[in-house]
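Handoff note, outgoing to incoming analyst
You'll be picking up this chain. Sequence as last confirmed:
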Amino acid sequence: MNEILVATGLAVVMLAAPLVAVEPLEPGYKVGEPLQLFVNEYRVTGPQPGGGPDLVCSYARRPVVMVYAQEISAPLTRFIKKVDEATGAHQKESLGSYVVLICDTQDREADLKALAETEKIQHTLLAMVVINESELNKGPEWRTRGLKRLQAKFGGEAEITVVLASEQRVRASFAFRKGELKDNDIDRILADLPKILPKKD
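Most recent structure output, in case you need it:
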């Protein structure tokens, strides 16, 4: 009997305890900030595979959806497919999009290639940046600084960071911890596309 009373009392206390809401994660980029150059990403798909200029420069004259991720997950894959569809639907408005995987080994290139092939990603460029001790010590100094700045902007708690930009300025930005990106978040992000698309007359 005493055990039942104790269990009941604990249940009441747990129900009465206030639920602590997790605060939304602050994105590394704030609305209104100019885009920064970090390092030349390694392009896995799209024109100039393997090389090419910094993606910020490549998309400087276009409205663009920029996605930085530390892991390829099911929610991220669903989001990339939606972004790819939106990019294709807004070709007349010159909408661009790219995904940068921040990882610690070049082996992840195979994962991005498989993603592009399996999900038939046609309009969204997939790229990667390898950040590990060897890369950070490789130099030159400007490159090391760029890697560290990119890591600081999009690393840490954020598994996925999304930036909507036009004219090289941030118009909307979002950051999600592991497991936080849901379908309603994807819809919310895509609903913000008019913020970067050219105004219709």
